[in-house]
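tool_log.txt
---
The assistant was asked to compare two proteins side by side. It first ran the structure predictor on the initial sequence, then on the second. Raw inputs and outputs are pasted verbatim so the downstream comparison step can read them without reformatting.
(1)
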Amino acid sequence: MVFGEKAMSVTEPSTTPAEDSPPAPAPATRTDAAPLGRVSVLVAAAATAGWAALVSFVPLLVLVLLGWLLAGGAGAATSALRVAGAAWLLANGVPLHTPIGPYGLVPLALTAFVAWRLVRAGGNTARALADRRAALLGAVGVAAGYGLLAALLALLVSGPDVSVSAPRAFLTAGGLALVCAVSGAAHRSGMLRHIAGQFSPAVRAGLRSGAFAAVTLLGLGAFTAGGSLAWHADRAADTFRAYQAGPVGDIGLALLCLLYAPTVSVWAVAYLSGPGFAFGTHTAVGIGGVHLGPVPAIPLLAGLPTSAAPTAGALLLGLPLLVGVATGWLVARRDTGPGLTPLVFATALSGAVAGALFAVAGALSAGSLGGGRLAMIGPSWWQLGLAVAGLVGVAAMAAGLTARTVARVRPHRTPAGGTRLGPTPTPDASPSAPDGGPSAGGSAGPATDGTGPSAPTGADGSRDGKADGAQQPAADPAAHHQGPADRPGDDGGAGPAT
């Protein structure tokens, strides 16, 4: 054995570095790496901002050019390019100034697509930089670059018939990009998860349930608006026929209605929750009464109510309350903490979150279609936010307390005490062998050396200390005589004996 160890020590290369080996190159200094980091942030932000703008602009450009070609190429091609640029700026919330007045009614379908691309841009920037601080700095760079592109496009679009303020385009589009890119970067870098982990269970439950209530209400508004349009389908068909634009014009009108469908859905939520909305100055559309003037001939507007809802129509106010009841029941099934106080706080917070989201949606869905009578269109953002927050919050609070106290609904918890978000996990148990021996997972039973029975165990499953000492002999007597240099695995050792 000694001869084998010596042979191994001669044949194996030494793990210690040679004395005459050249020294390792010194790492780059901080001053050398800092400019490269700044350049990397700028390059990543510029690339992702430009890609987000291009991906959101090209579909509009293709649709406008396709319509221009199908219409026989009437007018110059530059006019079609300017129309596509103006539509892209409007989707970013930038108002257009026309000879008849400002045009600021945002197509929320396009805005949602633009926001999604900006969120992806922030996430891609964070992935490229792989650092939280650099990711946030890159998101700010995305917003700045995106705003500069919007300002440049505003200068190119402006002309005698349509003009766009370049500073307004920079601030509005850049602000939208800042919110979306920072959200995407924070999500991609794990910062949102880290921040959410600092909140209490009641706060997390309120935030999630408020987002659930807002999405459910928006779907309910879309269903209501679609049902009203289907009820007045003959009126919408007459509007299509009045244009006599042919198949190309009908397709264009249908696309226009689809782009503004989310906007009308927000109006429907305002109608259901009580405040209603306006379609022109000194007008009001609500469940209690309708005061409308002449409406533009757009098929999507054929579903606007022309009179107050009947007595049974007051039941429509109960639809947001049903959403609040479902939200409260959902909160009651979550782990909000001991007692009823966290539950009350979570349900109130869910109403506040839903109201805040719809206040933003109400502000985005309001605008103008020129000056004069159509200078005020859409709901009041603060009235819509307060109404949704009150209806959802009160209904959720009542439903949550009822579920906990009367229906005895308890949050599902894991064995560790956390909230169960899915099926209860079963503990990992190693299957025992068929012959009653040790399991395949390696968890063996009491060890015996073949000379006697195993050591007795106590009531808690632990063995007696004397028995442990008696039943753990050294497996290899030579192991007690190994020095540090002879142990296999130590740095500088000679390896295993042969």
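(2)
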Amino acid sequence: MDFEPSARTRDLTARLQVFMDEHVYPAEAVYDAQVAASANPHEQPQVMRDLQATAREQGLWNLFMTHGSWGAGLTNLEYAPLMELAGRSIIGPEALNCSAPDTGNMEILAMYGTPEQQEQWLHPLLDCRIRSAFAMTEPAVASSDATNITATIRRDGDHYVLNGRKWYTSGILDPDCKLVIFMGKSDPDGPTYRQQSMILVPTDAPGIEVLRDLTMFGYQDRLGHGEVDFTDVRVPAANMLGVEGDGFAIAQGRLGPGRMHYAMRAIGFAERAMSMMCRRAVDREAFGGPLADQGVVREWVARSRMEIDQVRLLTLRASWLMDTQGNAAARSDVAAIKVAAMEVAHNVVNRAVQTYGAAGVSEDTVLARLFAITRALQIADGPNEVHLRTIGKLELAGYRKPADAATYMGGRP
């Protein structure tokens, strides 16, 4: 395994570092102020539009896209360090048009969309002329097991009719959101993993009602996390992604790179919190000296450094496996980074909060927001327990084979 950054990654990293220092970090407070002052808290603030224009001019645009000729054409391993750097700011990925849920939706359209679907939806998303949402999770069932989903997609002539209630439909409240990718059951009596489909739904289709915006530990997200009713929503049959029953396969195709993006962004969160903790420890005095002289603080710093570096290596290995052996071969590693990266980020942020004391739980620093995000993302995109279940199942698979005394000595061969 060779994790040495390619020449292109080194060049992009250097340029992205300048962009973050000169444009993104100074814009964070402006972004929050413009959102707070807006009549619609979900409308994209002008400072973000300015950041995106600058990113496009500097060639820092759609770096995530590995499919076709639409993006930068980077491998997962090449892209990973860039997402860590952008992830040090909550607004960093959005400035590069590399933020969820659009990244996953664009990948789905690139991999499974027809040329007509790509022309109508993918190209505007890549240009950031529109935004999108993903409607899968439902309030009435445990959606961590997607076979529980009850929303329906029923064929009616040249159309499909959609019914169901979704929630935490991220991005739905953004006025620029023009597309929802909706997951529901098209064949409830079919084989377990062929029951569901994904379909493209314009947000102005009659029958879509946003009931409320859901907060995340009390924080309101600019994109919005909507609870949404779909009542007899009719969309053309041509809007089906793939064919009926492809829903699970499409979801699986979306997960590997998406979870790497989450993991590297989490490492960026952790590095931001680590830097803040170290500066606070050096500058703040208590009990006759700087906090950095306290043994417990030095232990927090040491453990944070070890944990961040460990999970970065694990994520780079998962990226390398996806690039060299495919997403299926990286399944256990991809599940592991989703768990480990968010847990590490949350632990490091928690230590930084403790180092800052009262300021750490206030809105005077980014730490409280990072604390909420890293905790929530241990549930979003599949709770940790689901990924642990997958890792355990894969790890135990080899032990279920008939034991051969010449090969197995009470454990692995």
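---
observation on (2): The chain has a mean pLDDT of 94. DSSP finds eleven helices and nine strands in the chain.
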